[in-house]
Design goal:
about 10% strand; about 350 residues; single chain; 6-stranded mixed beta sheet; 2 domains; about 65% helix; alpha/beta
Length: about 350
């Protein structure tokens, strides 16, 4: 059998025993290197610090137990390796080395170390799953909180929008009242006994009172984007009834029609024998609103003659009705030509 020479570097204090044959030296090298390599793999495989860092803060106690267990297992593995090495050295000295038995023990040791490693991995995996579940529940709770915050913010925005809309409508109403007041002032400033009184801050008084030498008028202006409904008609009726000294009430819609009384630009309604409501539709659509106001005032002048006639009892009631109907027909015909 041929041999080859191998150069090895060992510490100076190492005492080399040259009592072995080349075959025995090769066997010693093979078995020893295998054992040391496996030991290194076992030791390096049992290091779990990178995984522990992820859950170390919340699970310090469990991790410490795991670390102690791993350290103990490392020590047990090292002791077993030391025992094997000691047995190996003893058997080598006594020339009683049983290679097959040693291989079986090494395989058993590998299986045991592998089992320990799998158990540790399973424990760590379970702990990580627990932490993941906690994080999932925490995120779910945060999502619910965020949803509540969003719902609250949406409600607040909706309330603000409604408040802004109310303010906008209020400002729109104020602008409409000012527009009507300016038109009335400009139209009737030269009429006998004319006086314009702002009443929009007083309940049941309408927006303005117009005083003339012959009769007085209660005025209510509406700057709506849709038809003036029944509730506003009922309101001006109540206001007129409360102001018994007023013969007429003008319900003026600046941009829209007045519900039920929109067959003509100007219509009227008697609420008793001495009080009448005049409905004026879409005032601002006319090129000359002042002219329309003067026409309506003349209508009121003619209607006031009927009121005086009824209240003074100069003629019989039937004759009064006939005059009323004739005057009403004339006024309606006048309204048709106004367009």
């Amino acid at each position: 059998m041929s041999y080859k020479t191998v150069h090895l570097a060992v510490p100076k204090e190492f005492i080399f025993n040259d009592a072995f044959s080349p075959e025995e030296n090769a066997m010693i090298w093979k078995i020893g290197s295998d054992v040391l390599l496996e030991g290194r793999k076992v030791i390096s495989g049992l290091t779990q610090k990178e995984i522990y860092e992820q859950i170390k803060e919340d699970k310090r106690e469990e991790i410490q137990k795991l670390e102690m267990r791993i350290i103990m297992e490392k020590e047990m593995g090292q002791k077993m390796l030391d025992r094997i090495k000691e047995e190996y050295e003893t058997r080598m000295k006594d020339n009683k080395w049983d290679i097959e038995t040693m291989k079986e023990k090494i395989e058993l040791l590998k299986e045991k170390l592998k089992m320990y490693e799998n158990e540790n991995k399973e424990i760590i995996r379970m702990e990580i799953d627990k932490e993941r579940e906690k994080c999932f529940l925490l995120l779910k709770e945060k999502d619910l909180q965020n949803k509540c915050y969003r719902d609250t913010m949406e409600k607040m925005q909706e309330s603000l929008q409604q408040l802004t809309m109310v303010k906008s409508n209020f400002k729109k109403g104020i602008d409409g009242e000012k527009k009507v007041g300016d038109l009335l002032e400009d139209t009737f400033r030269d009429y006998n006994g004319f006086e314009l009184i702002d009443k929009h801050t007083q309940a049941s008084q309408g927006d303005f009172h117009i005083l003339f030498e012959e009769f007085d008028i209660l005025v209510d202006a509406k700057n709506y984007s849709k038809k003036v409904d029944k509730s506003q008609r009922d309101k001006i009726k109540c206001d007129l009834l409360k102001n018994e000294n007023m013969s007429f009430a003008w319900l003026i819609s600046l941009n829209t029609n007045i519900e039920k009384y929109d067959k003509a630009p100007v219509t009227f309604e008697w609420i008793n024998i001495k009080q009448c409501i005049i409905y004026i539709n879409k005032l601002l659509e006319y090129e000359d609103p002042n002219k329309l106001f003067r026409i309506v005032w003349n209508m009121c002048k003619e209607l006031y003659k009927i009121i005086k006639y009824k209240t003074e009892g100069a003629e019989e009631v039937n004759e009064c009705k006939e005059i009323n109907f004739k005057t009403a027909d004339g006024l309606k015909n006048m309204s048709k030509h106004m367009k």
